[in-house]
Amino acid sequence: MAGYQEQGYVYLENFFSETEIEAIEKILRKFHEKWLEDNVAYYEKGLLNSHSLTSGNYLNQEEKTALFQFISQDKLQAILKTVFPKTPIFLNTQLFFDPKNSEQKNYWHRDIQYTGMSVEEQKTAIQNQNVVHFRIPMKKESGIELVPKTHREWDLLEEFEVRNSLNGAVPSDNLKRGKVIGLNRGDVLVFSANMIHRGIYGQDRFSLDVLFCDDIPQMRNFIDRNNYPSKEILENLNNTELFEL
């Protein structure tokens, strides 16, 4: 995965078999239906993702076990070993779908901008802190637009102004260095949460994101232990070091 270290992402086509996707999709659809019932007001207001699939009561023990087995499987672990300098830990899960309003604009961002860090702190953190998304689409979608290398490099002036709505720019403006990566069912896009990126809405997207992070105190502060497997589930998993808190 040398490409990840340089570019901040790696795209792997046909990474999952149809059987693997079918098994996990049933669980994701069940979660999503129940989540929508309870969060319709937020969906109406423009929310376009949910999180924490492995906590709460939407999924039963068997479904959570299957989801954790998917998350901790060996071929994902093999990627993690090349991406992270040391063994990472599980952070969370997210589901991404289209906003209800088809006219809603997407937005360039770095995940780190929502942590409360100052700009100077963010510039330092992207050099030595790692959060990585595994984007796994359940169906063909327009994908993600990334600005390569920005997992370690700071914004150009244009990018900073767009991302932060400065000097008349807005976060949905196009960026010259943006690179769109379309995704198909069975693919996986591994990318740094530090980098400048945005989702491309449309095509009724439905994607699972699994997030991992460095096992450091700064990251542990963002972990909700309720998202972690129970002792009973842990006994049925490989690569349990991902869940050692």
What does this structure look like?
The protein contains nine helices and nine strands. It is an alpha+beta fold and 245 residues long. The chain has one domain (2-243): Sandwich (Jelly Rolls), CATH 2.60.120.620. The protein has a six-stranded antiparallel beta sheet. It starts with a helix and ends in an 11-residue tail after the last helix. The mean pLDDT is 96. It comes from Flavobacterium microcysteis. This is Phytanoyl-CoA dioxygenase family protein.
In oligomeric terms, what are we looking at?
single chain
Give the strand order, joined by hyphens, for the main sheet: 1-7-4-9-3-2
Number of strands: 9
| Number of structurally distinct domains | 1
CATH H-level superfamily? q2cbj1_9rhob like domain
- Strand fraction equals 15-25%
What is the approximate shape? globular
GO molecular function: 2-oxoglutarate-dependent dioxygenase activity; iron ion binding
Protein name: Phytanoyl-CoA dioxygenase family protein
Organism: Flavobacterium microcysteis
Pfam family, one: PhyH
List keywords for this structure.
alpha+beta, 6-stranded antiparallel beta sheet, 245 residues, globular, 3-stranded antiparallel beta sheet, 9 strands, single chain, Jelly Rolls, 20% strand
